[in-house]
Amino acid sequence: MKILLLDFGSSFVKYSFYDNEARTNTEMLSLAFPKPVIDADGRYEVDCRMIDEVLWRIMKDAELNECVAAFICVQMHGYFLKYKGEFSNYISWKDKRGHAYLDSTEEKALFDNGTVLKANLPRVSLRDYASLEDKEFFTFGSYIAYKLTGNNVTHITDACASGLFNVDTCTADNLFEGLLNPMVVRELKPCGRYKNMDIYPPMGDHQISFLGASALDGEAVLNLGTAAQLSLLVDEDVERFDSIEYRPYFVKGKRIATLSGVSGTDTEGIISRIKSFSKAFEKTKRILISGGGASDQYDFLSSGLERLGYKVALCCNNVGNSGLKIIANGVYPLRGTMLSEVEFVNFPYVLKKANLDFFIIDNEHGSFENKTITSLAMNARHADIQAIVRLPNNDRAMITKLADGGVSAFLLPMTNRKEDIEKVVEYAKYSPVGKRGISTTRAHTGYGVADIKEYMKCANQRMKIYAQIETRLGVENVEKILNVDGIEGVFIGPNDLSCDYDCMGDTEKIKGLISVISKACAKNDKPCGIITADKELIKHALLCGCSMVSCGSEINMLLKGAQGITNEKYL
Fold first, then answer.
1. Contacts of 497 (CB under 8 A, 6+ apart)
2. Residue 61 neighbours by CB distance under 10 Å
3. How far apart are CA 57 and CA 377, in angstroms?
4. CB of 515 closer than 8 Å to CB of 544
5. Which of 99, 98, 97, 79 is nearest to 89 (CA)?
6. At a CB cut-off of 8 Å and minimum separation 6, what does 318 contact?
7. What is the pTM of this model?
8. Distances in Å between the alpha carbon of 197 and those of 3, 31, 158, 205?
9. Which of 193, 535, 550, 560 lies at a CB distance of 3.0 to 4.6 Å from 336, suitable for a disulfide?
């Protein structure tokens, strides 16, 4: 299943195609954002037809790639007006004509809704029009949604930058009588379809970039694009400072405190501005530098920021694309469950019928015979669902027997050090990655192969090995574990984590650990999963970028089914 990830910037429009099931991303493609048709006297306008040409070119590419959904983020502040079926030019965020209408009495309303007073806000610059009666207002995001679905709708993270919408209610304040406004939503559900694609409400590119940087508590993100923005995730009721924008975010009760207003290439200006507002960012432990200019400007910026007392790190990934990928994973995670002790070899067919993507055969706490495990693994192949065997240990004899019997994915519980998982790789993968013994007239080959060398290469690609991070030592060593050649990714075990950290019942502590582990996975571009039935932890894990969720087990299903019978009134 491929998903279009589309990032509209004011210089370039970047997009890629993300395979949700394989967790692979195509190379980033890029088109230049159209040049203005008006750039004078404070006006900066782009012909909407030129924007349409870029959009249709990308959507044609998405069709050819058979995408089933599109997730979109957009630049801030710009807007369109529609009157009698005709669209105006795009009035860019670079447009400055609103200077004549700045009114300081509006500052508090804007401040509460996540922005600050400035000339290029639609709330200000719309006053340039003699009449707005019967006109329809579009944010850049809602315009894209309208073109694709016919619905003028967008996400609150895009809408708030206009200054027209209340963050709490997602409704316009009716400042301009007779102006029709887009529908603004918080939920990420499809707002319509374009051909065979679900189109999701466009989101603010700034919030998406912050999400993609995978910042931990106390880490600020300095994103360098056309403009530079320093952002920190804060509680909604935090003390607020003038000139800092407290933009809405994807987490309830949180805002992004953002300092902007300087060119993304003005390194001295960036450092000077951050120094001027250091009080607002006093809880910052480290600054992650990201964006298109991050690598080129890192040395100068890092030395300047370190002089101000900040620790600094380079965030190398494309944060916009990464943020959209996290959102996509949250909407389309790989969903699975656990087979804990019932020996039912047709279980894979049942799960496939229920549209699950994988299941874990628990041979750590469970007591399955090898014959049962290999029968389950072969049936999983036929049913086209992944079977992952959770091992009792990293013993060679067991791994070899199960791999030759058809198992193509292993999970090692209590992975504390890289040496633990290295053994699984060694025994489960052939040379040159591992040292798996060769025996080809077995179930795993279908009892014979024509070309052993080619088969070994394909088998190594098919074999997935996961580490389960569920101890303090595992968290401390997660980077080293992820760097082991041959490891696919990790699963988080929150129950044992809470036990080892002596924080049973402390959900916030576990959330913090989930953030740490998932960030390490994102940094190493490897998938992260979680094994839990706790909805709050699942929601947090998905927002952190976890792309696999194993929820409950066949015992939970049996208990729920049995309880359903006893609850029936007629019995």
1. 469, 470, 471, 475, 510, 513
2. 15
3. 43
4. yes
5. 79
6. 14, 28, 212
7. 0.90
8. 9, 21, 21, 21
9. 550
pLDDT in tens, 245-272: 999 999 989 999 999 888 878 889 999 9
Q: How far apart are CA 27 and CA 16, in angstroms?
A: 6
Extract the runs of DSSP E, i.e. beta strands, from 292-400.
311-314, 334-339, 358-362, 386-390
- C-alpha–C-alpha distance, residues 354 and 370, integer Å: 26
CB atoms within 10 A of CB 195: 10
pLDDT digits (tens, 9 = 90+) for 83-125: 999 999 999 988 888 777 777 667 777 888 888 888 888 988 8
Nearest-angstrom CA–CA distance, 545 and 519:
8
Q: What angle do CA 408, 414, 420 make, to 5 degrees?
A: 70
Angle at 349 between CA 344 and CA 355, to 5 degrees: 125
Return d(Cα 480, Cα 419) in angstroms, integer: 9
Cα distance between residue 417 and residue 171, in whole Å: 51
Contact 65, 49 (CB under 8 A): no
pLDDT of residue 203: 98
Strands in 353-450 per DSSP E: 358-362, 386-390, 409-412
3-state secondary structure of 40: strand
What is the C-alpha to C-alpha distance for residues 307 and 323, in angstroms, rounded to an integer? 30
Distance CA 406, CA 408 (A): 6
* Other beta carbons less than 10 A from residue 354's beta carbon: 11
Place of tokens 């409400």: 201
pLDDT score at 104: 64
Which residues pair with residue 491 across a beta bridge? 468, 529
| pLDDT < 50 positions in the chain | none
* Residue 463 · residue 429 · CB < 8 Å: yes
Q: Token pair of 190, please? A: 């499809």
Cα of 140 vs its chain's centroid, Å: 21
| Burial label, 524 (beta-carbon count in 10 A; 0-12, 13-18, 19+) | middle
Token readout for 571 is 């019995």
Can you give the length of the chain in residues? 571
112: number of Cβ within 10 Å: 13
How far is the first Cα of the chain from the last one, in angstroms, to the nearest whole number? 44
Burial class (CB in 10 A: 0-12, 13-18, 19+), 355: exposed
Residue 163 structure tokens: 């200054």
C-alpha to C-alpha distance for 155 and 153, rounded to whole angstroms = 7
DSSP 172: B
Angle at 74 between CA 71 and CA 80, to 5 degrees: 120
Beta bridge partners of 529: 491, 548
Task: Please tell me the distance from the alpha carbon of residue 569 to that of residue 531, in angstroms, as a whole number.
Answer: 34
- What's the confidence (pLDDT) of residue 488? 96
- In the numeric block, the tokens 């209590």 are attached to 414
Q: Which residue has the tokens 């656990």?
A: 338
Which pLDDT value is given to residue 567? Answer: 84
Structure tokens at 557: 């299903």
How far apart are alpha carbons 62 and 70 in whole angstroms?
A: 9
**What b/e readout covers 251-270, taking b as 16+ CB neighbours within 10 angstroms?**
eeeebbbbbbebebbebeeb
Distance separating alpha carbons of residues 428 and 401, to the nearest angstrom: 10
